[in-house]
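Pilot study result, target chain (215 residues):
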Amino acid sequence: MTKKERFQFVIDWFEKHAPNAETELMYDNPYQLLVAVILSAQCTDKRVNMTTPAIFEKYPDIPALSKATFDDLFPLIRSISYPNNKTKHLIGMANMVMEDFNGEIPETVPELVKLPGVGRKTANVITSVVHQQPNMAVDTHVFRVAARIGLTTNAKTPLQTELQLIKMIPEEKIYIAHHWLILHGRYICVARSPKCGECGLRPACKYYQQLIKAY
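Predicted structure:
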């Protein structure tokens, strides 16, 4: 199977079996999603979703969050990983949005990465989820799944993975392919003991073919 054929098989399978894949973070608007994604770094979506309602109740928008103090916001984030840094990031992010972007969440990756707590992965999530821009956020799940299946070759960094994926995936499908790969990695192609017996991608998966050869 050529790489092009492998990509086509994977895309066709996901389009049939996960046509409505989307983020598991709970949000109502770009502000809420940005807060949730900043909090989700090295933390589960489930934990973030348990934490954000109290934050959004007290700080319903960017202007409100920009006026938050560390001592007021920190208790709401205490159960999240790296709460000190993330508290500072959220307040800094809100202040920069107010001062540099007229209170509006930026809509491009180059602008978003200027915000405290926002790296390329977070910026790609925001732009792909909110605006369906053809950006591929690469987290540990995407990195692992893409390599195992054989969608990427010798990709050593998230950026290398991102560039290889967007080169082969049709532009209009990139935003949802991000969710396909994340959710597949979260529930099927898990880090330890991947559930190959439940996986419909076996015919196209290099990892699975190597398992067969091993036996």
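One observation from the pilot: The chain has two domains: 3-21+135-214, 30-131. A full batch analysis is planned for the follow-on phase.
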